[in-house]
Amino acid sequence: MATTKWAIDSTHSEIGFKVKHMMFTNVSGNFSDYEANISTEDDNFENANIEFSANIDSINTNNTDRDNHLKSGDFFDAENFPKLTFKATSFTKNGDDYELTGDLSLRGVTKTVTLPTEFSGLMKDPWGNTKAGLNISGKINRKEWGLNWNSALETGGVLVGEDVKLNIELQLIKL
To answer: Which residue range or ranges hold the Lipid/polyisoprenoid-binding YceI-like domain (predicted)?
Structure first.
């Protein structure tokens, strides 16, 4: 069977995340500079080969000071670890949806994560291109990758939550 290569359609995709701020509201952010190598053996994406990387310097939370802090040694340490990477080890059906498992590397630490994934199927766009949709969610604990910085609040609790919720919307285009 022929291998199909896919690219991320960046105009219709978002690599997003949310983190609790002051324990009661979420701050959202995304990475705007990323790349992926994706290949499949069939149209249902089972056992897809997925490799992804994002440039830490492209982090955007709509606040320059916060973005600079996230790039610093307190968090991602972009100077020494300029990319986050993900390499899938499996993409398997789980009921109506899928599970994407792979190795996530941040700040020089690699851990295996499993992320619930919704596969939206295939569709032709008005220009005849075949597109596929993936919505990847889940959460990780940032401290497992050494992103430990925090600040105690007078009222108790901490400034930055440990759990990072992922919200990754991918529209892929068949090459």
So the answer is: 5-173
